[in-house]
Amino acid sequence: MPPENSEENLWFREKILPHELYLRNWLLSRYSNEVEVDDIIQDAYLRVIQSKKRCEMKAPKAYLFAIARNIAVDRVRRSKVIHFDSLTDFDLSNVIDDEDPASESIARNQELEFLNKAIESLPNRCRQIFTLRKVYSMPQKEIAKKLGISVNTVAAQLKIGYRKCVEYMESNGYL
């Protein structure tokens, strides 16, 4: 909040604070299970105060609700992002080790062959993106640039590829 006896504080108490209950109810009705409403309200207050310092605000209530909505939507989007970094954590450097017993080496080769079949079962574009990311560890931005597609498309195709590989492994009794 602005300093106790300042003009900003008075403006905030008159123009913004009276809308908190309505804002809270509005956020709860739309995003109750997806975001922390108290955090969104606090962030919205902070942004409103920062904006008020830069320019005159003609419709503070509308601005407050718009800011809160944007924060909520952004947090919902972020919460739905799936990270695939765990797939690149595999240490393949010791997959074939001459000192391992033959049975372990054969089992590893079979696992790699099965994983290769799962990847081969993917649609062409999905397989291409999945391979560039998971086998060659190419960043999503580079893949998007190389293939002339958006980063969102790359992310979506990786999600599809991962899901289809898991389904392939499950349907063939590997998982």
SSE diagram, text form:
Elements: H1 7-16, H2 20-31, H3 37-54, H4 60-79, H5 102-120, H6 124-134, H7 140-147, H8 151-171
Helix pairs in contact: 3-4, 5-8, 6-8, 7-8
Task: Using brief descriptors, characterize the structure shown.
175 residues; mainly alpha; Arc Repressor Mutant, subunit A; 8 helices
How does this model look, in words?
With 175 residues, this protein is mainly alpha-helical. It has 2 domains: 73 residues, no CATH class; 87 residues, Winged helix-like DNA-binding domain superfamily/Winged helix DNA-binding domain (Arc Repressor Mutant, subunit A, Orthogonal Bundle), CATH 1.10.10.10. Helix 6 packs across helix 8. The protein starts with 6 loop residues before the first helix and ends with a helix.
Please summarize what this structure is.
It is built from 8 helices and no strands. With 175 residues, it is mainly α.
Apparent shape: elongated
Number of helices: 8
- Category from helices, strands and their pairing: mainly alpha
Number of strands: 0
Question: What percent of residues adopt helix (DSSP H or I)?
Answer: 55-70%
Order of helices and strands: HHHHHHHH
Q: Terminal Cα separation, in Å?
A: 54 Å
Write out the CATH superfamily name of the largest domain: Winged helix-like DNA-binding domain superfamily/Winged helix DNA-binding domain
Strand proportion: under 5%
Identify the CATH class of the largest domain: Mainly Alpha
Radius of gyration, rounded? 25 Å
